[in-house]
């Protein structure tokens, strides 16, 4: 059984130019550039949390997939086990996080890396703006 709901192919091999989380507006915005020099912007709304690692100056994305909530809890079991007691992501227990994600229709977007930045975004919606 696949945990991938959909893939966002427009981001393969894109260089990350910048990203910005607005915690008051519950948004995360990421600007990327394709190998051909075209800008692709990614807008997450209804942001609950995000987790990025290996962030460097020249991040190159492999791609982004939306995965199932069950897949998220399975894939990030170890990370959540170490962070949930500190309130990340935004809950005090795994059960509370799962309930909140269901109640608020939070989706899981996993960002894979060719170089540098990778991680996940928990948000209600995503929109890609391509040329």
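^ Assign residues to that structure.
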């Amino acid at each position: 059984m696949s945990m991938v709901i959909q893939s966002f192919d427009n981001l393969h091999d894109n260089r990350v130019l910048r990203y910005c989380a607005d915690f008051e507006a519950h948004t995360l915005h990421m600007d990327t550039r394709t190998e051909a020099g075209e800008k692709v912007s990614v807008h997450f709304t209804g942001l609950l949390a995000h987790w990025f690692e290996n962030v460097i100056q020249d991040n190159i994305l492999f791609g982004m997939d939306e995965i199932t909530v069950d897949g998220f809890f399975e894939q990030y079991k170890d990370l959540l086990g170490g962070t949930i007691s500190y309130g990340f992501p935004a809950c005090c227990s795994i059960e509370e996080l799962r309930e909140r994600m269901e109640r608020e229709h939070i989706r899981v977007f996993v960002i894979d890396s060719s170089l540098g930045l990778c991680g996940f975004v928990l948000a209600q919606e995503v929109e890609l703006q391509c040329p």
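The CA atoms of residues 10 and 40 lie 8 Å apart.
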